[in-house]
Predict the 3D structure of the following.
Amino acid sequence: MNLTTIKNKQTSKTPSFNNVKAKGEPYVWLTAMGLGVGLLMVVLLLGVIAINGISVFWPKKLVEITLTEQSDMKINGSNKIAGHISKKQIRKNGKKEWQLYVGNKDVYGFSFKFVDKDKIVSVERPKNIMSIERLEYGDAIGVPLWLKVKNVGEFAAGTKEFDRRLKTLIKGSHQLWAHIKQIEKKEIGKINRQMQSLALKKKVIGSKKEFDLVEKDKLFALDNKIELLQRDYQILAQQAQDLRVKVNEHTLGYRLVTGEEKVLPIGHIIHTVYPNKLNVWQQTKLFFYDIWHFLADDPREANTEGGVFPAIFGTFVMTVLMSMAVTPFGVLAAIYLREYAKQGLFVRCVRISVNNLAGVPSIVFGVFGLGFFIYFVGGTLDQIFFKSSLPTPTFGTGGIFWASLTLALMTVPVVIVSTEEALAAVSQGSREGSLACGASKWQTIQRVILPASAPGILTGLILAMARGAGEVAPLMLVGVVKLAPSLPLDSVAPFVHLDRKFMHLGFHIYDLGFQSPDSEAAKPMVFATTFLLIVLVVLLNLAAIIIRERLRRRYATSAF
Amino acid sequence: MFLLLDEKKTNTKRDTGQSMTIEVEKRVSTNKQELNKPFIQFKDFNFFYGAKQALFDVNLNIPEKKVTALIGPSGCGKSTLLRSVNRMNDLVDVATHTGDILVKEQSLFDPMLEVISLRKRIGMVFQKSNPFPKSIYENVIYSLRVAGCNKKSILDEAVETSLKASALWDEVKDRLHESALGLSGGQMQRLCIARAIANKPEILLMDEPCSALDPIATAKIEELIFELKNEFSIVIVTHNMQQAARVSDLTGFFLLGKLIEFGRTETLFTNPNEKETQDYITGRFG
Ligand SMILES: Nc1ncnc2c1ncn2[C@@H]1O[C@H](COP(=O)(O)OP(=O)(O)OP(=O)(O)O)[C@@H](O)[C@H]1O
Ligand SMILES: [Mg+2]
């Protein structure tokens, strides 16, 4: 270090050295600036998404604001407003204003309200104000009054007894809901499937012009079975109905700061909390509780509330299916191009076309997927294998399989290009060594070239996954939906349902941000979902990177 | 011949050289027929890379179970000749040839001959060691694996005998299942030799096997060639004159794609017929 500085001092006296230095320096700055600007933008983007995405889950304190009597921002004639401050901004005319999330959409008809800062008389944080997460209409914000427990009595708010009872009642209602779901989705679903298959059988027999005695018997037996199932169905439906009544038999009374009093059946409550009573530890606990429910729950209320589990799952399954389709496809194509095809004008043309394929707008792939995979291939499959259930399409409509194939097609150039590069990087020496051992060309590829180029191939797969997982436009045409009734993988045979429509985080973002009736209310979800999508892509890539490093280490080069 | 050897080694090598000569003569007298019958035979062999001719009218008879060295300045076509024997030049798109090469009186270019089965009979060690990205074990038995042999007892035995033959066994016997790319350069080259002989080929082609190795590793490989000559017919390309003198029975000298002189090693080095050979081995050009 010292030595070099001395050397620099000595040499810097000679003019020629200075000249060289002066010429080199600006390019260092230029290149560094290029990297710097790029990095800054990426960090900024990720930072905004991460901060906004995570802060959604941090429990917010509620404020009660008193406005001046003359204010024109009153709600229902009251000069009180309660909620959490979601934004503070300065309007064009220079006036400061706050945006409040006031909730209670069932009463007010909106859930956000702007108030002018100079119209505010006082800001308080009452301890007893409660935030109630409900199944419908978003949160309710108000002061609890009483709890009516059927056959037991009424409990006034503000006591320990009230809080304890409320907690156990909500817990009980969650169990009831789980039970109802079990009956409606699992058991009734099972009966429905059986009835459908019986109806199909009946249709098949019935479609014949004449039937003999045996078939008549069969028809009769089928009818009997269907009748039995119908009876079971009635019983289960009645059970579910009873439970639905039961879950709503206790009620909670509360009053809004604007004066209205409301009654809410316990069955509608997901979670209650007194935000202003929380200490940091409780806030943290609530934070993780919220994150968990965001990850694990089904969406509610046109997706603006609840969790995104089906979307996470759909994205994951689709990306994995896509990788499974694109890897063999792309690798085989690259092997042919690099190893078998005679390098010439034609191969060069093919290579250029493949590279350009990566520049085709993704929506075009969506259109192709719709036309070719769904209408042509899917339609044909339906004609051959699922004729009996037509006109209801099985594969002739969008589904996770076609979506994965469409994205595989879209990302195949990435895999081909990087596989080709990896193959080209395998030394001629290895190839010759293998051939000299009496291996055939395919054995050489399979046993020497592919293992040596596996890390490079995985790099291509990583790039393909990153591109595929974040894509939305083509998916809208080939099977993604706003709300899918069931997951593409479940415990019902055949377990993998490739024909099912699915939810996707990318589409979820679009749907929340631009298709939902109350985009302001959905904004936090948009951020959180975006963040989640990025995390998912990173996790998938990380998995591929770990595999790649394993491979590299296995074939670690020597210090030769 | 001994002019070329360094002072220290002269004595020991002289002994070996003499005993070798005696041995060769003995064999010639006892089994004269065998030596006369060529094992690998080049007949008016011309070789072209596109329009460029790399070999001119080569006529060469390589005997069985001898070490034949090919020497000559860089670019004179030694590798080309060697690679023609196991038809490695098939990989070069523009390569063409005239004339013929016979192994055991069968033409290499017979359309009925399968290149793969030919290569199974001919092992090759390359100038630059090229172990596969596999374990040491899998590297050695590669030729058996591709031939469809999966029986563990056979494979284990092949690994042990070939690694012992290539003097690598003691160094790697505890790490057979580690990556071959973790070996040193010399070890890798010996591994490649083990790989080339695992399938018991009849001919072993070696293209400058020691060019990247230090003297100790070189000595080991030379010893190895000595050992192997009892079982294989070896053709070795080398730039190292001493090495050619030490290990080979016969030597061919090439210049600009032409075979200038071919004969018993000691004759060629001590008393060459051609002026070019004389110039080359005394280091006046090349
Ligand atoms: N693939 C090829 N395409 C075109 N010309 C080639 C090719 N390989 C070798 N040659 C040419 O053929 C001639 C002989 O090459 P060869 O590799 O046989 O030389 P060599 O004697 O092995 O040289 P060295 O001792 O440097 O390895 C050289 O002039 C070389 O340029
Ligand atoms: Mg060479």
Summary: Residues 147-279 of chain A form one domain. Residues B 49, 52, 54, 74-80, 92 surround adenosine-5'-triphosphate (ligand 1) (CB under 6 Å). The interface with chain B takes residues 342, 427, 429-440, 443, 447-448, 451-452, 554-560 of chain A (CB under 8 Å).
